[in-house]
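Exercise 7.
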Amino acid sequence: MHDRMSQSGERSPTLVADDLFRREGARLVASLAAHLGTHRLQLAEDVVQEALVRALQTWPYRGIPENPAAWLTQAAKNLALDALRREQNWQRKEAQITAEQERWLTRDEPSDEHVLTDDTLRMLFVCFHPQLSIEAQLALALRTVCGLSPAEIGAAFLTSEAAIAKRLVRARQLIRDLRLPFAVPDASELQQRLDGVLTALYLLFNEGYKASSGDRLIREELCHEAMRLTRLLAEHPMTSQPATNALLALICLNAARLRARVNLAGEIVRLHHQDRSQWDARLIQEGILALGAASSGEIISSYHLEAGIAACHCLAPDEASTDWTRILSLYDQLLLLKPTPIVAMNRCVALARVRGASEALEALESIPNRHSLEAQHLYHAIRASFIAKLGHPAEARAAYQRAADLAQCDAEREFLQSQAGAAIGPGDDA
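Solution. The predicted structure, written as tokens, is:
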């Protein structure tokens, strides 16, 4: 083995391993769980973590393998088999272990068109077993299958990391006790579980689109995985439903703008300053086609409405042409369908563009259950932008600083600190 060279120079083994784990870790856990059984889900997670540790220990000295993903996969499989051998009465399981090794080497994917063959998708459906609470289902899916940390999951649900950790412990214990099958449910249960799977993919994309913590605003690997899995669902006869296509449209239309959202220095670029020639025309086209496919049903989901909002941005040739009246109307419908503080807060951005900052500020400060937003940096950033537009720079600066203090993502914190210095609005990303 030897260290591989990229066009830009030598790659750090530690960075390669870390990037690989972010991209492949959750998928590898799902693959191992498919072989080991869901009652060994914790084992699957443990051996993948141990495989990463071994990569970090050996690659700096022996060099990066030519196929790092294959190396990590094989290391995790070997560790899993070693763990099976250590189980009580392992001698009686030797035939099973040998068979497992053969199955991993010769595994064929099912040919039935009504079977989901992707291990990650199958594991997602396992996570949404009806015997788990809704909160446990989502926490387990986002942690085990999507690879988000308890802190990141907590940010998505406006709750604490400790609360998420407790949900995960209970969910894993129940899966182990019930020995839930690693299988997609039959048609009678599919719709019930599909809704949860779509929610998990929506939250996964959101974390990638605007990271809740860390040194990067955008985590492209999360966006791409959410897009990949949603495409698979949209293409499959069992799961190609209006809500699935609407979510695919939403993801594609928002992903189309990823490259323009930060500059080469990793700094945030506000919507009206973005170079629209950098927007991905292919993804915009795919998103519009998916939104058309989503219109075949009679039920309008929140994904339909959010995709419509994203389409208004993507189809406007320039910022001045954006149809903010249409966006506000879509937010009004979304708020009726999904009356959450987050939706109400985002609606205020569109309200400011249509009816002015004064009415928007009043609406923002009148949101029911607003206390859940006051610990969120975006609430204070949006409030600061309205106050700045109303001509109160000192108050706006204080609100921006409060937002910067709460921000966990380095890029957002730096951006908000710069806004505090200038007392200018944070932009119009609705």
